[in-house]
Design brief:
Blueprint: H1 6-23, E1 46-50, E2 54-60, E3 69-74, E4 77-84, E5 103-110, E6 115-125, E7 128-135
Antiparallel strand pairs: 1-2, 2-7, 3-4, 4-5, 6-7
């Protein structure tokens, strides 16, 4: 049975409020945070889902060589970090726009359940990294048979 952690929920709410103020071009009204600057977008963008046995993460990392991506799992957090190489202007080339971001990135996701660290797979195809994390046995739902008395 899942437990509700009120402090975790309050922290998630605070992060959402911070994000709303950033989206409006405003700083956090009650002081600075250790979050990314206003001008940066969360990267990589992710889809995050689960079923009875697994947690699934799809991360959008276009233009990033999978060799330049580090995937780490510690307890119930997953961190995707790496670096997108900068655009290199070639001699004689006229650049009209250079909008693709470059530089180091890091995204940490808190998992809703404990996972089995021995059963994690990751692959990358067409700029989408797919990560599958098996839930720990104690985190999977159990069906209990009810006996008639």
């Amino acid at each position: 049975m899942a437990t509700w952690d009120v402090f975790k929920e309050l922290d998630n709410l605070r992060r959402e409020i911070d994000e709303a103020f950033r989206g409006a071009g405003l700083n956090r009204p009650f002081g600075s945070t250790f979050l990314s600057p206003i001008t940066t977008r969360r990267f990589p963008l992710v889809n995050f889902s689960e079923d009875e046995g697994h947690v699934y993460i799809e991360a959008l990392v276009p233009g990033v060589d999978p060799k330049d991506v580090d995937l780490t799992v510690l307890r119930n957090t997953v961190t995707i970090s790496g670096e997108r190489k900068p655009f290199v202007e070639k001699e004689g080339q006229i650049v009209h726009r250079a909008e693709l971001g470059s530089g180091k990135f890091s995204r940490t996701l808190e998992l809703p359940v404990d996972i089995d660290p021995e059963k994690i797979t990751a692959s990358c195809k067409d700029g989408i990294m797919q990560i599958t994390l098996a839930k720990a046995e104690h985190a999977k739902p159990k069906k209990i048979d009810i006996k008639l008395s």
